[in-house]
Specification:
9-stranded mixed β-sheet, alpha/beta
Length: about 190
């Protein structure tokens, strides 16, 4: 994974399996890569992006600003996936003193974060950790051009983005049958089912 992480730090994009469908992303703190990603997906920057990381401890500054019971609820959604078969992304306010680039938040004052349980992608996130990316954030957006269905396998991912600056991490999804949901970390409300 270190070689892949090195290439991501140099601006490469990567298509990879997630819990339900395939995602496409890059090192969240590499502006050139994020701009390339938005371009090939034809996705407006103001929508913001989801980022993945490998463990809860990496995002403690985001959690610490919340009440203890809310923190426990959020962590539980990442730990009990075997019962829900649904991944959950949480929209966190940006903590004071935390530098998160606007190419990740878009026109919002929050950041969409998910602790991923896919073993290979968790390892990839861990290998991205350095001084520039202390959270191990990997951008995650569905692996498809806008208006086409998300890729469910390597073949489809390659048919969409097989030329150019995209690497492919072969593997299987976790087989979840529900798409990921997005919830508000402050109020707990569901934004996307």
């Amino acid at each position: 994974m270190n070689d892949i992480a090195h290439q991501l730090k140099q601006g490469k994009l990567i298509a990879y399996p997630t819990e339900t469908v395939w995602g496409i992303g890059c090192d969240a703190f590499c502006e050139k890569a994020v701009m390339d990603l938005l371009s090939i997906k034809n996705r407006p920057i103001d929508k913001g992006l989801i980022v993945l990381t490998d463990k809860v401890e990496r995002i403690s500054p985001f959690l610490q600003a919340l009440p203890t019971d809310r923190q426990a609820e959020i962590v539980a959604t990442w730990q009990h996936l075997h019962t829900t078969k649904q991944a959950t992304t949480w929209l966190f306010p940006i903590p004071n003193g935390t530098k998160i680039p606007m190419w990740l938040t878009g026109s919002h004052d929050s950041l969409a974060i998910r602790v991923i349980n896919h073993p290979a992608i968790a390892k990839l996130c861990a290998s991205l950790v350095d001084d520039d990316n202390p959270y191990g954030f990997l951008v995650s957006t569905s692996c498809n051009p806008t208006a086409l269905p998300p890729a469910h396998d390597l073949y489809t991912a390659m048919s969409y983005f097989g030329s150019g600056n995209v690497m492919f991490l072969d593997g299987k999804t976790l087989g979840f049958d529900k798409p990921s949901q997005i919830r508000c970390a402050v109020g707990g409300g569901v934004i996307r089912i």
